[in-house]
Write a structure and sequence with these properties.
Blueprint lengths: L19 H6 L1 H17 L4 E3 L3 H4 L5 H11 L2 E3 L14 E4 L2 H4 L3 H32 L3 H11 L3 H17 L1 H8 L7 H16 L9 H12 L5 H12 L11 H18 L15 H12 L1 H8 L1
Antiparallel strand pairs: 1-3, 2-3
Helix pairs in contact: 2-4, 6-7, 6-8, 8-9, 10-11, 10-12, 12-14
């Protein structure tokens, strides 16, 4: 049986290409807008996009000018804005206008995953009970007859029972989580870094890893106990997955936490001590540009080492 598609998606109106704002800014800026939607959905940021990542969201020329065009027509806001419908960020982020009006928030995504997980656990227990009942029925005619009666229930009755059970799980979510071995509800920051590592591993050509409770525990400890910010963890993920040495050695969140300090020290040792050469048009060569981006993403790690 094929694995269910667990990717997230963004909603885009089929009249977007004819929207006056899109027509005004042009196709290149429109692509940057779509890329910002995808980043926000994948990373669960509720529409906040770090300004330093704008160059990574598009390979088109002059992305800052494209972002300025989106700001001018109101498809993006500066982080500190006065739009009552959009969340407020800091001076170093852009905010996608009306993101939460059309897309799922991080809290909604976490709640949906929790609901699906609870329903799956309930279904698994019921399936196990049915198998045990069928086994007993082979030696007990009365038990077999009872099991056959259960199997003749209509589809509508089964669906109604499932819906009732899911509602009961939601009403008693605290007890259900304890019964399933979970100590606390899903956290948006933990889900964000776990998904980022899984995405990076898959993007490198490996089989997508399963995000387990052990992954989430390691991410939570990295943030809460080790006092790493989400941006620092994301920078470490990006750096490790672009390193020939660390890529095969960091294939899970527990490994990332274990090797975090070693990677930080290596990043400090390997940080370029001279300016990279620029081409005639003022841009870095392709390879050097990618190296520079990786070091930019490790700025927080390097800052720790200098304190």
């Amino acid at each position: 049986m094929a694995e269910k598609d667990r990717r997230t998606y963004v909603r885009v109106h089929d009249g977007l290409t004819d929207h006056p704002k899109i027509i005004e800014v042009g196709g290149e800026a429109a692509w940057l807008y779509i890329s910002a939607l995808c980043y926000s959905s994948r990373q669960l940021t509720d529409g906040l996009v770090p300004k330093r990542l704008i160059r990574r969201l598009t390979d088109l020329s002059n992305p800052e000018a494209l972002a300025s065009a989106l700001l001018r027509v109101g498809l993006l806001h500066e982080g500190e804005h006065d739009c009552s419908r959009c969340p407020v960020g800091g001076p170093d982020v852009y905010v996608v206008h009306d993101y939460l009006e059309h897309q799922r928030s991080a809290a909604e995504v976490a709640a949906l995953r929790e609901k699906r997980s609870a329903a799956g656990q309930r279904g698994g227990r019921r399936s196990g009970e049915s198998r045990r009942a069928a086994s007993k029925g082979e030696a007990n005619g009365e038990a077999l007859a009872s099991d056959l009666l259960k199997q003749t229930r209509t589809k509508t009755e089964a669906e109604t029972e499932t819906e009732t059970e899911v509602e009961e799980v939601l009403r008693t979510s605290s007890r259900a989580r304890r019964g399933a071995g979970h100590d606390e509800p899903p956290r948006a920051d933990v889900e964000r870094v776990c998904r980022a590592l899984a995405d990076a591993i898959e993007a490198n050509g490996s089989k997508r890893p399963t995000i387990t409770k052990q992954w989430r525990d390691s991410a939570r400890l990295l943030i809460d106990k080790d006092r790493r910010t989400v941006e620092q963890v994301l920078g470490a993920i990006e750096w490790s997955q672009n390193s020939d040495f660390w890529r095969p050695n960091v294939q899970s969140m527990p490994k990332l936490r274990k090797q975090y300090d070693q990677m930080r020290l290596q990043a400090m040792r390997d940080k370029p001590k001279a300016n990279l050469p620029a081409t005639a048009n003022g841009h870095l060569p392709g390879t050097d540009s990618r190296v520079a981006e990786h070091y930019d993403l490790m700025n927080e790690l390097l800052a720790e080492g200098s304190n």
